[in-house]
Amino acid sequence: MFYSERNTFSPARRNTILSEVAGMRHMLQELRDDLGLEGRVRDGANDIWGKCAILTVNLEELKGKHLARPAGLVEYLDPRVKQLLASLNHIFRLVDRSRICF
To answer: pTM of the full predicted structure?
Structure first.
């Protein structure tokens, strides 16, 4: 992958952050209950579809016709981008089927 994350928080700071988030969640639950609001469940297929859509746009921009590129880069990138896009399209089709099968 192009990046990775590293947790550099000390245990004390991490616990402070987690405690703050827990307090916020508690407050939001109180608001929901006090105001009679209904929570909602997000469908995993919709999240996957949305992330694939974003990746598709980013990958399309990596195609040679969109880049100011040094020699040989188009020949290197285009087949790989094509394969990545084919994989994303396959995931799109799989997710669409799962969205229909409720």
So the answer is: 0.58
Average pLDDT over residues 25-48: 90
Asked if residue 62 lies in contact with residue 81, where contact means CB atoms within 8 angstroms, the answer is yes
Rounded Cα distance, 34 and 27, in Å: 10
How is the chain split into domains, by residue range?
9-40, 44-100
Q: Under a CB-based contact definition with an 8 Å cutoff, are residues 62 and 47 in contact?
A: no
Could you give the CA distance from residue 31 to residue 37 in angstroms, rounded to a whole number?
Answer: 8
Residue 64 DSSP class: G
> Among residues 56, 74, 55, which one has the least CA distance to residue 64?
74
Question: Over 90: is that where the pLDDT of 83 sits?
Answer: yes
The span from the CA of 18 to the CA of 26, in Å, is 12
